[in-house]
């Protein structure tokens, strides 16, 4: 439960993600969507070229990764640096804001990975309960 001080600090923020018209909602979607979160997590480890990033984020299509990187770059979370070489080389890395956001995502990812046995056990209990209900 939030303290009075925390609630007052929250009320002082100029943006409210719970408001339909708040522009922070779009950025939240970019960060917490499957490909955005995985892309930020991968870039937290090091800067990567496009194909390295695509290999690291297993399962993402070229098109989805490109769209994700554009959105994250527009939000100021990712920098794209094109090298004037032949063939062209493009590197992606996190901005300072991107590192902060990715650090928080990494903590969430590590929490989930560390508790997957509990999650999977919960799946089994739920599925068994639902199977009994369907008879």
From TrEMBL:
Residue ranges of domain HTH hxlR-type in the record: 22-120
Transcription regulation listed as a keyword: yes
Coiled-coil parts of chain: none
Keyword annotations from UniProtKB, A to Z: DNA-binding, Transcription, Transcription regulation
SUPFAM superfamilies reported for this sequence: Winged helix' DNA-binding domain
Domain of life of the source: Bacteria
Protein name stated in the entry: Helix-turn-helix domain-containing protein
The species this protein was found in: Streptomyces lancefieldiae
